[in-house]
Every structure is written in structure tokens, then in C-alpha cells.
Amino acid sequence: MNIKITKKSASAKKLFIHLIITAIFVFLSGCSTISETFPSLNDLTKNFTAKSTEQSLKDPANVLTTVQPSMAATSVSEIAGGNTATPEPTPSIYSIQLWVPPQFDIEQDTQTGEAFADVVSSYMEENPNIEITVRVKAVSGDGSMLNTVTAANQIAKDALPSLAIMSHSDVETCVQRNLLQPIETGIFSDTGSWFNYAKQSAVSDNNTYAIPLFGDALVIAYRNSKIGAELGDWHDILGRGLPIDFTPASANSTFGPFMYLSMGGQLINDQGQPFLDQQKLLDTLNFFLVGSQNGSFPPSIAQLADQNQAWQKFNDGTYSIIITPFSSFRHYKSSEISVRSLPLQVNSIEYPMINTWNLVMLEDNPFIQGEAIKFAEYLSNVTINNDLSFSAGYLPVRNGASDDLSDDPEYDLVRMICENGVLVPHNAVYNKTIPVLNNAVTQVIKGQASPENAAKEAITSLN
User: Fold this and answer.
1) Which pLDDT band holds residue 20 (cuts at 50, 70, 90)?
2) Second-level CATH architecture of 94-215+355-422
3) Which of the ends of the chain has fewer CB neighbours closer than 10 A, N or C?
């Protein structure tokens, strides 16, 4: 079929071509306009980067809310194009909160409180960037330090202190409950400067959880004007028939256990289980029977359970001799009262049942941890610790007292006890054996059981 192009169709064709050319022209013009209105993609990226950098320098925290998640951990310098990461800022003031038992209350006008307050103040003066706040917590009861730390760890960790001073028993309990932070310190590298009982109290579950600060041990305090000649061995002391004040009704009394251990008794068997040697226990109970028959341990004494009550009876003249912790003697010390160690058995040199007060860490912030450890190391510095121990009325934990302390009337006594001191047994042993042993002692003093029957009953109840 032949197609013929007319003049009219030719005109239309020209018009169509003209429209196409015009459209192309308009399109190209439009691209120019768009180009003038919007920058290229590279320009857009440059503009975003420049603005982000400018804003980051003004408000780095704001950058983390605007950049993509992968950039959230990027430092300000890296966002701005640098290669050096900005170090995390350190606080200008370190706040260390320290919980202490009542005897270390720096607000109290006592020998111990004042001595401890002086050391804390001196440390803050030497370290103006450190602020130490001291809070007092009870030793026992619902509001005790142990109960408060346990509760706070479960419901309000922010309320926990950086450091706390705890007894050896409470330290062990806290370790078992996973409440304490291990302490990384090189202070124990000089092993020869630490007394053995103190080194033992620093470690629990094969980790260092405590820095020992003070020791405490049983001693005999007496009123010079009432006892006559200087006290000799136990045969001499019991033979005088003078009532001896102590607290046999307390489940935690350590006089009975002291006598049992000094006679060669053991609290752990070969399998590492709590244990009482029946013969040594019988010897111990016979000791208290003789004392009861001579009037040294009258039945009335068996009712005493509180150390403060015991000292009230000593101070009012009811008793002239008292078995007491060394720290209590130093607290009540006067010119009329003297002190000596508890006599040991023949061939025995170990001085058992030494307790300790230790600094532990609960802080989990690494910045505060470092400063808290520095303060702990300061308190246990050999010179500072010895001065503080004598001033506060406790036994030192480190071997190296300054010459100034040799003039202290109890210096030789303290040195002897520290050099031969043996730490109180572990909680698992202590909590099972000591109450049983004390109950047997009380029964004998009251005349409720013979030493033989009391010993058999104790062994049976332990097993």
C-alpha cells in the first residue's frame, strides 16, 4: 500500500518536531535550575559533615543523638576528622563514703574516735581532691552494718559506701554473700612487715577482700589495790579466790575457747570439719570447775552476757579482776587499773582468738575504687597504722612500731601478743563450736553438770 504525505501532514510533523525540541530545551533548563537550587550529593555530604563538626564542638553529647548508631561510641575528635580519641574525663573531686562501727565514730569524744578523726583529716589535707564522709553503723541488730549492706546490695546499690570497716567475721559473711569487691594492692608484698594473724585475715576464698587495720585480743585487767602481789600463772590466780569478771552467758565469749585452745585443743579435725577434742575439753571444764569451787567463777557470773555490763560491775568494785578485750581495757584505762596477758600453758606460745577490724571495698566505680584503695593503703602504712593503733587502743597489724611507742606502758604486752597471735577460726567453725563450748562452761560454773557430762553433751551436740 502506498502512503502519500500531504502538505497538511507535513506541517503537523514540523509542529511535533518543534514541540519535542522545545521540551528538551525546557528539560535542560530545568536541570540547570535544579543544580542552582540544590548542591550535589558530595556537597550535601560536606555540608552535613561541616555542620556536624561545628555542632559537636559546641555540644559533644548532642552529636551522639544525631549521628548514626555506629558512630555513637566515636569521640569528638574522630567525628571532626581527627585521629586522636578524647580521654574520658576524670572527676576533680573524689567523694569516698566510709561506714564504720560505733567505736570509730569521729564525732564522739573518745580516744578511738578522736584518733581516727585525726588520721582522716590529715589524709584529706594531704589530698585536697578527696572528700571522705564517715557514717556510723551498728555492729548488731536489724540496722547493723552487715544487714544494711546486704539489703542495699539487693535493692539500692547506689546507697552502698565506697569502703567499710568490718570485723573478721562480717568480712567472711560478706564474701560468702558476694557483697565485696576484691582489692588489688601491692601492700602485702612486704610480707615480713605484717603479723601473721593480720595476713590471714586479709584473704578469703583465695582472694584479697580486706586490708587489716587493727587487732584485738583478750587480756586480764585488774585493780592494783585489791589483788595484792602481782598476778602469776593460773594456779596462782585461781588460788587467790578473787571473783573474776567475764561474760560466759554470751554465745560469742572467747575466754572458754581461749583456754581450750591454749591447752592444746583443736577446733578442726583432719577432714577440715568443726571438732572438739573430748579430753582437752574435759581439761578446760575442770579448769572452770576449780575456779568455781575457789570462788573465782561464782555461779552469779554465769548470767553475764554483755561486755559493758561486765565493766560496770568491775568499775563499781563488784569485781577486782576482769577478762576483757584489750580495746575495752584501753577505753576504761585509769591509773588504778593494770593489765597483763592471759597466762599460757607450759610449752605453749600461741596466743589464740585474735580478732581483727578490716577495711573492705564495696565501690564498683573504677575511678573511686582507685582512690579508695589509696586511702586504705594510707591507713595501713606501717608507721601510720602503728601510731593509730596505739592511740585508738588496739593492737597493730604491722611489725614495725616507731621508737616513740616504746614508752607506752603496754608496748611489751602488745608486741608479745601480736608476734604470737592466732586469728579467730573461720565462721563455719566458729559458729558451730564456740556456742557449744561456752554452753558447757556455763553449765559447769552453774553446777548444772559435771565436767564429764558437759563434755559428752557438747561432743554429742556438735556431731
Assistant:
1) low
2) 3-Layer(aba) Sandwich (3.40)
3) N
